[in-house]
Design goal:
The protein is an alpha+beta fold and 360 residues long. It has 8 helices and 19 strands.
Length: 360
């Protein structure tokens, strides 16, 4: 077991609002009951006091609960990590899982595919504050209405454009794509159905058939490896063509380190684009840089790059006659993320986001 050295905000952990928020997530969303065997998986980035709160709530609901701590992920190795064999076997025997570990790995996709209903809660000592702010104190109904309006417009549109004063100029064919409506907070999982959710909530968007042009990154870039994640020193200009990032310039801080890391895999699919997105952030209480919340920052636009094969396993939905996206399945040795701030996104010319503000 690794030694906890992080500062623990005991005030937030014992805050009544944190307990109320966590109970809503565990009881009303994950749907834990006395019929469940729940595993809480976390790594040593998270003080044990936090998963103990989750455990106490689930025990009060009558569930059989196990808490498992595993070591902090090694530096730069925050994707595709396997689990110790006894832990992996234990996850598949559960009915429900709360995980505050890395999110991008087959080690978590496998129990989800086996029918283990899974809630991802970010790791780290600041999670109680973040969940109070981005889940407990947010108007979920307003976010739901915004998401469903965007989904409706996305489904009807043929052309998506993203532009910005910094030079972003992307065009995407979205004809025939059906964007899914969402419910905030999500509905309880149905027995026997594959189900997972990542917290906090608050994004909107849909699939694409093709996308090309110039993308200027001025928000969060990279992945959680040291020195490979954060805000660039200057905007980064990327040229997108044939589902790939073909040219990059700008930034002397993060991009050279990230590029070196990506190139070390000798895998051109690490530059596959987009792995997911574009997605519009809808959560008004999210901040840039927080654990998992930056992608939900209201008005931002995010993309994933590199691998999307693991993410495709986190849910299984029936195909739709309107869902004819030609975006390829990308199998790569790396997955990373990009954020654009202050941009404008239009659907058939109608502004959905204008200069970083949601306008619907």
């Amino acid at each position: 077991m690794a030694l906890h050295v992080e500062h623990v905000n005991l005030g937030a952990i014992h805050d009544r609002m944190f307990y109320k928020t966590a109970r809503m997530m565990i009881a009303e969303v994950l749907g834990v009951s006395n019929e469940d065997s729940l595993v809480i998986l976390y790594d040593s980035r998270t003080p044990v006091e936090i998963p103990r709160v989750y455990s106490g709530i689930a025990t009060d609901l009558g569930a059989e609960v196990s808490i498992i701590e595993i070591p902090r992920p090694p530096s730069q190795e925050v994707y595709f990590l396997p689990l110790p064999k006894p832990v992996a076997a234990g996850l598949k025997s559960a009915t429900k899982l709360i995980t505050s570990w890395i999110t991008y790995t087959d080690a978590l996709a496998e129990p989800i595919q086996a029918g283990v209903h899974t809630m991802f809660i970010p790791p780290g000592p600041d999670v109680p504050d973040m969940l109070i702010r981005t889940v407990g104190e947010v108007d979920m109904k307003k976010m739901e209405m915004d998401q469903n309006k965007i989904a409706e417009l996305w489904t009807k549109a043929d052309l998506l454009t993203i532009t910005s004063d910094l030079g972003t100029d992307l065009k995407a064919d979205i004809s025939g794509i059906e964007a899914r409506h969402s419910k905030y907070p999500p509905s309880k999982p149905e027995k026997g159905k594959i189900w997972s959710t990542m917290t906090p909530w608050g994004t909107a968007g849909g699939g694409i058939n093709s996308i090309e042009g110039t993308l200027v990154i001025n928000g969060i870039l990279g992945h959680r490896g040291p020195g490979l994640y954060g805000l660039p020193s200057e905007p980064i200009t990327m040229e997108i063509k044939d589902f790939r990032i073909v040219k990059v310039k700008g930034d002397s801080k993060i991009w050279p380190l990230l590029k070196g890391y990506l190139d070390s895999f000798n895998d051109p699919n690490c530059y596959g684009f987009p792995a997911h997105g574009p997605a519009v952030g809808l959560n008004p209480n999210c901040r840039v840089g927080g654990p998992a919340e930056w992608e939900r920052l209201r008005g931002c636009i995010t993309f994933g790059a590199g691998d999307n094969s693991v993410m495709s396993k986190y849910s299984r939905r029936a195909p739709s006659a309107r869902r004819r996206a030609r975006r390829p399945l990308i199998k790569a040795k790396m997955h990373w993320d990009l954020q654009v701030l202050g941009a404008t996104l239009c659907l058939d010319g109608k502004g959905i986001v204008e200069n970083g503000e949601v306008k619907i």
